[in-house]
């Protein structure tokens, strides 16, 4: 696994941790939150594909 792939996995893991932390605190995690996280992941993948 390359350096860029690991970076993408790290970004995804951080986003999931943020959403899980919010849910654990009893905060609502909306579909919009999930879509924003997915968009950030997609952006990271797109940047990686450019290299």
Features:
mainly alpha; elongated; single chain; 51 residues
Characterise this structure.
With 51 residues, this protein is mostly helical. The chain has one domain. It has two helices and no strands. The protein has helices at residues 3-24, 31-50. The protein is elongated. The mean pLDDT is 85.
Q: Which secondary structure elements does this structure contain, and how are they paired or packed?
A:
Elements: H1 3-24, H2 31-50
Helix pairs in contact: 1-2
How many strands in all?
0
Q: Structural class, from secondary structure content?
A: mainly alpha
- Residues in helices, as a percent range: over 70%
Number of domains: 1
How large is the share of residues in beta strands?
under 5%
